[in-house]
Structures are given as structure tokens and as C-alpha cells.
Write a structure and sequence with these properties.
Layout (H helix, E strand, L loop, with lengths): L2 E4 L5 E2 L3 H4 L9 H15 L10 E3 L4 E4 L1 H10 L3 E5 L10 H10 L13 H23 L5 H15 L3 H13 L3 H8 L7 H10 L14 H7 L3 H18 L4 E3 L5 E3 L16 H16 L4 E3 L9 E3 L11 E8 L8 E5 L10 E8 L13 E8 L5 E3 L2 E5 H8 L6 E5 L1 E5 L2 E5 L5
Parallel strand pairs: 2-4, 3-5, 10-12
Antiparallel strand pairs: 1-5, 3-4, 6-7, 8-9, 9-10, 11-15, 12-13, 13-16, 14-15, 17-18
Length: 435
Amino acid sequence: MTMKIMNPKDLIEHPYNKELYPNGWSTEDDEMQELRKSMKARLDAGEEFLNTRPIKADEKNVVYGGNRRTYIAKELGGNVQVETTPYTFNPNNEKDDELELLESDNDDKSTERNEKKLQIAIPKLSKRLSVKNERSFRETGKGWSVKNTSEFKIAFGIKWGISEKTLKDAYRIYAEFDRFDLLQAVDDPNDKTTIHQALKIAREGTKKARKVDPNKFNVVAFLKGDERAETIIERAKRYTKQYSDKRLTTSITTDDGITYEVPTNPQFGSEKQFLLTDISNATQFGFAKSFDETGDNALTTQTGINYEDIVFVNKCKAQYEDESLEIKAFTWKGTASKTMATAGKTASTKLFNSKPFLLTMMTSDSRGNPTANSRYFQMITWVTKDDFKSSGDNATMTMQKWYENHFDRPEDYIVITGEVYDSNGKPEFNFAPLM
């Protein structure tokens, strides 16, 4: 074991860290505040290093244990004590093994982050199971067995002191009903919600609209004003075309030199229940990967159903609705009033908060199906519940309704591919190749 004092700017966040720990990074998080306060006190006292427990990093300075301490040390400007691990990160290492190392090197964080909280433990369990399932499928052609999954869950619960029943209910709340907010409620000592009550609420679907950050990330304004926007859009469209051209049997090497197996990549992969919706999944991959490469950590919904299509992890705050981008792809039906995007039924209710959608509209063959020669219109636009109307189990927005509500509000949208313009009070769309 080697100990050394380092400038935290030389340390590198583990590439899988925020996949295993997607929550608890907000500066508003109580534990982050306490950690910052402790490290600031050491800085003010003139201590040689800011952390009381060593950060664990490999010989290439990739952090396995202490990514949050590293984050705060970079912010404060002091040095840190680092313990060198006996293993080294390599992007070709088996991801399941890397996550095991990451989790084991964070086992001693009881004084920094409560790993027993459901909002920490359950997303971590979900990620571990997802990666194990992908590994099994890759190695054997079959997913991880029910027996192995059950045994892993039981061992995980014992390790973190979570009863089998609580773990089972919490996992359902998170993975089946997408109600992370209910896990937070159960964890909150000032909230009387029990795990049983939380599961009942999730089952009944009686959720309230989640609070929106008053300083919500405006992806449209960002792409219109940030110097990285041109690079993000160019890469996103190029990656989308690569994926779309090669369909679902492809490996894509991106500008950072990493090869991704699409659609099963856990960070940028496709929705498992929609593996035939090529352009939707291609767009999801392309834009998530492009944003991620330029510094805005992004994840797709590959791990399950009912998650936002792209989540901007670094911009999410625990007490607010996720910062996300929804992906909708649909074919042009000849007129704006007949062409529509489909969303969940909630989109037409008061539970739906205004959010950005990336709309991809494409030309089709005589049967209404996209082809290799399809042309596209793409834009990112803010939408509200007033854009949608209830339609059975879904909600729909026609492009005519979008035009009526948003065309004269250029701050609401940015066109990425093709053109939209007014023609005697009606919208006209010009379609173009993706690249």
C-alpha cells in the first residue's frame, strides 16, 4: 500500500462512478454539505491534506473510493491524501468486476455517505443487476438466472442491513414504478411514509407532480448560446446516423476512442422494450453520448422502463424533478394536423411539468414505415400539458398544436435538422438527411 499527497486536479473520476452512484452529488445534499464543511475546516486550519480518510486511486490516478471527496477538494483547492490501489482501471476490464471494486472501495463511507439509504442502495443494486444480466447474456446467450438474481439481492440486503421484504418493496418502487421520490420519502426522518405505504402509493399511481428547479437547465437556450453547442449537435447527428445506418447489430467507435456495443451499453444504450424503434434509439444514443463527451454527464434509459430518455446527471438536484430530455420519433402523415407525437397519459394532466422534447419526424414509404432513404426534421422544443390531449392510455400532440403554441416563441425551440416555416398561417416542414 502506497500513500501520497496529491493535487486533486490530477485525480480522475472513475468512468462508472456516477452509474453506480447517480444520486447524492448535488451541492444541496446534506451529506455533501457536511463533507464540504469538514474539508473546509482542515483547509482553514492549514492541514497538509483535506481528507481524514485516504482517497483510493489506481496508478493512473483513477479514483475508486472517494470521488465526492475529490470533487470537493478540487472545488476548495487543497491537497488530498491518496492510497494507491493494487488494481488499475482499463476500459477493456469486465464492467461487472469494475463495479464490484467500486462498491467494495466505498464500503467504509458510513461517515461520509449513508450507503444504507434506500435512495443510495437501490439504484446501486439496480445497476449491479443490470450489468450482471448483460454479462451473462454476452457470455452464455441467456440473462442472469432468477436464482442468481434472488441470491444476489439477499446478499446485498444482508451486507447493507436492509431486510429482504424492505429490499424487495424498495426495488419494485424504483425499478417497476420509477418512483425514486418515494425512496427519498422513506429515508427522510421527518417524513412518516413507510416502505409499505410507499409501495401502495406507487401501485395506485397517486403521485403528485414533482417540484421543478426554479433554475432548471434550459437545453434549448444552452444549444443556442454555448460555445460547445455546434460540436454537440454535429457529433450527435453523426452518431445517430452511424447507429441508424447499422441498425441494432453495431459497434460504434466515438471521438474519445472508445468502442460501444449498441444497443446494450448501460450508459448510452437503448430501451429494451423498444429495440425495433431504430431512429428513436439512435437519437437517444447519439445525443446522450455527445452531451456526455462535452462535459454534461448523460445517461439513457437502457436499464429499464419509465425513465426519462436522457438524464443530465450533473445537473440533477435531489429535491427536484430530473433534468432530462425526452426523445420522440414519428412519421410524417402529410399534414401537421395528422402528424403527432405520442407520450404517456400524464402528459395531458396537471402532473406534467413543462420539459424539453427532442422530436424526430421522418418521411416514410407508402405503408407509413421509415426506410433507408427517409429524410428528417428534428428539433428540441419545450412542451407543456396544453400541447397534449388524452388519447386512450396515452396523450398525443399534433404538429399543428405545436405550431399554434410555440412557432411564434423562438425561445421555446431550436431546429437541428430540416426547416419549419409559416405558410399562410399553417406550418410547413422541409426534410433533410441526418448528415
